[in-house]
Amino acid sequence: MTDPTAIRAVVNSDRYQGLLIDPTGGHFHPLNLALGEAAALESLGGRVVEHSGVTRIERGAAPTVHTAQGSVRAKFVTVACNAYIGDLEPQLAAKSMPCGTQVIATEPLGDLAGDILPSDYCVEDNNFLLDYFRLSADKRLIFGGGVIYGARDPAHVESIIAPKMVRVFPQLKDVKVEFGWTGYFLLTLNRLPQMGCLSNNIYFSQGCSGQGVTFTNLAGRLLGEAIRGQAERFDAFARLPHYPFPGGRTLRVPFTAMGALWDELRDRLGV
Fold first, then answer.
1. How many separate domains does the chain show?
2. Which pTM value belongs to this model?
3. pLDDT over threshold 90, residue 58
4. 21: in domain
5. Residue 198 and residue 72 share a domain
6. Beta carbons within 10 angstroms of residue 206's beta carbon
7. Is residue 18 within 8 Å of residue 7, measured between CB atoms?
């Protein structure tokens, strides 16, 4: 924990009363990570086939994965669609809910970058609907926050996120926002990831609830262990209890949104 008088040396904002610093954390580029992992897979003989959404999984001793263009027969299948599962496996979709979160990137800030984040740390707050931000390699501020339950793309990301950024850093009120985008994540009722088996040769992993970049790398290792017959660590996650959202697939979005309004009010009031 930082001394209250040292907050501005880490995050130059009057919005915070305390900071907890994790020195084991760091920055990385998520797209470059994904591209590097894909290249590593291909170097070992694996194949990545894009634009081939799965329409149906046929059970059996050798399950068959069907797409619009063709099919693949396999010894084992892993369903890891997360927020993009749609109606592929209704039993998985029933205990999770896709959500959208929005992110903006400013123009390069130059010397102003060192003023707002002298430490160059990645930051997130502890609000129920949290803000998160960091500097990019070219000194843009990447700032995200907010949740849209049900996962849809808002028309104007900047209008949603820029006011949050300015509340944290009023000194950025005249800075140009050059990029804005939405990303989807899969929320579970207890915010814990879901792993398990749909049959003895079909595994699943989903529901990272906003922590997917780190968890999916661990999940890949545990899935590999389970397929090879070493399932102890996989089973630790598979035993976690999971429940459907109140209201089912029809009413889960409005029910959750109503609950979130109460939590957002508490965030604003500081209670």
1. 2
2. 0.84
3. yes
4. no
5. yes
6. 26
7. yes
User: 21-25 long-range CB contacts below 8 Å, 24 or more apart?
Assistant: 21/121, 25/121, 25/122
CA Rg, the chain, in Å?
A: 21
Shared domain check, 128 and 178: yes
Could you tell me whether strands 194-199 and 141-149 are parallel, antiparallel, or unpaired per DSSP bridges? unpaired
Sheet holding 77-79, edge to edge: 77-79, 202-206, 194-199
**Which residues are within 8 A (CB) of 70 and not within 5 positions of it... i.e. 6 or more apart?**
52
Between CA 84 and CA 7 the distance in angstroms is 39
Residues 225 and 217: beta-carbon distance below 8 Å: no
More confident residue, 182 or 147: 182
What local confidence, expressed as pLDDT, does residue 262 receive?
66
CATH assignment of the domain containing 196: 3.50.50.60
111-164 per-position pLDDT tens digit = 999 999 999 999 999 887 789 999 999 999 999 987 877 767 777 899 999 999
The reply to whether 6 falls in a domain is no
Question: Can you name the residues that pair with 145 across neighbouring β-strands?
Answer: 102, 131
